[in-house]
Design goal:
Elements lengths: L1 H12 L4 E4 L2 E4 L4 H10 L6 H20 L1
Antiparallel strand pairs: 1-2
Length: 68
């Protein structure tokens, strides 16, 4: 199941929005804006509410890691 979550995260993260500024583009955290299209198309491997929380937690880890 964790492999399915990672696969879903990678697919969702490809649709990540960026904020363009004078110093370049900054990644924005994933939100329901990026997660919902996945849920419209695919059945989540775990209950939807838990799935959304898991995707956001994984994104928080990635964003923190990239910030350091």
């Amino acid at each position: 199941m964790s492999a399915m979550l990672l696969e879903a995260f990678n697919l969702i993260a490809r649709g990540r929005r960026h904020l363009a500024g004078m110093s370049g583009a900054a990644k924005l955290p994933l939100s329901l804006h990026e997660i919902n299209p996945y849920l419209d198309r695919f059945e989540p491997p775990i209950p939807e509410r838990e799935f959304i929380r898991s995707i956001i937690r994984m994104d928080n880890v990635v964003m923190e890691h990239e910030a350091n």
